[in-house]
Every structure is written in C-alpha cells, then in structure tokens.
Amino acid sequence: MSRAFTLALVLGFSLLGGCDRKSGEAAQPAPGASGGALAGAIDRSHRHSAIPGLSFHDAAGHTLHLSAIRGTPTLVNLWATWCAPCIIELPQLDALAAKTGAGLRIVTISEDLAGGSAKPGEFLAQHGYRHLPGWLDPDDAASDAFKAPTLPMTIYFDASGHEVWRYAGGRDWTDAGTKRMLAES
Description:
This protein has helices spanning 3-17, 84-100, 119-126, 141-145, 176-183; strands spanning 40-43, 55-57, 63-65, 74-79, 105-110, 135-136, 153-157, 163-169. By secondary structure, it is of the alpha/beta class. It has a single domain (39-183), classed as 3-Layer(aba) Sandwich (Glutaredoxin). Strands 1-8-7-4-5-6 form a six-stranded mixed β-sheet, covered by helices on one side. The chain has a two-stranded antiparallel sheet with strand order 2-3. Strand 4, helix 2 and strand 5 form a beta-alpha-beta unit. The longest helix has 17 residues, at 84-100. It is globular and about 35 Å long. The termini are far apart.
C-alpha cells in the first residue's frame, strides 16, 4: 500500500464515528455538508440512569440545570465547532427540533474549550439554527459525567429524566430510524 493511501484510510476511518480531539481549530466541513462522516452506534447500557445534576450557561448568562429537566423527553447533544460529524448533524438536529416542537426538548451543549462563552451561540445563529440552544461546557463536565469518548454524543432521556439510550458519533436525525428510537421509553 502506498503511504498516501494508508494516510487516506486512517483519516477516513477517524471521521466515521466521531471526533475525539479537542482544540480551538475550525470545523472541517461546511455547515450543512453531508457525506460519510455520519456513522455511530446506539448504546442502551446506561438505561434508567438519572440525568446528572450539571449546570450550563449561555452567552446571555442564562443557566440550564439538567436535573430540572422533567416532563418532556429530552435529547442532550454534546458537540463542538471543530468536530466534523457534529457540524454535519446540526442541520438534522435543528430540523428535528422544529418538527417535534414541544414534544421533544433538544439541548445542545458545546464542548468548545476555547473561544469564550459566545462561541457556540454565535456559531448556531450564524448558520441559521434557530431551534438549537447555545449552552457551553468549558470545563468538560458533561463529557466527564456521560463518559463520552467521542463527539458528538447524544443522550435520550424520558420525561422522568432517566436515560433511555445514547448515540455515539454522528447521525442523520431526520431518517426513519430516529422516530423508532424516540418511541422507546
């Protein structure tokens, strides 16, 4: 095998599941891009775990207490502006949020460590994602609490605040399988 071919294979496989690096660098794809970077796996081994008592802030100084989320099924999505699969799935998450309205809460928590508290909200607004909140986790508390080895990581909680499943890696949240996944309780 040629060195270039081997390097291309390594790079390609690294994008399949998700991002495992953290930096202040720009994301690789343009927002709304599609392609082979959306692949991941569902994990039900944490089923019935209570949502952790974590708090997050946005650029306006508002606070979100995860443990207070009750009454509505919730998707918690850990992402970063430098993560290619994260950026690719954002349009689908925004579309899902618009489609499901009050029937499903989507909480997007940025794991960006650099760039300040305004970075995630500005990024989401700049790309027209009107249904995704810009919560920031500069201390990586969510990644640690959820033991997230990669980004994106999306965790589905039922209306009582207990985990149903988690999805590691990028996903097209508008496909037919999503409806079946969200019907689980």
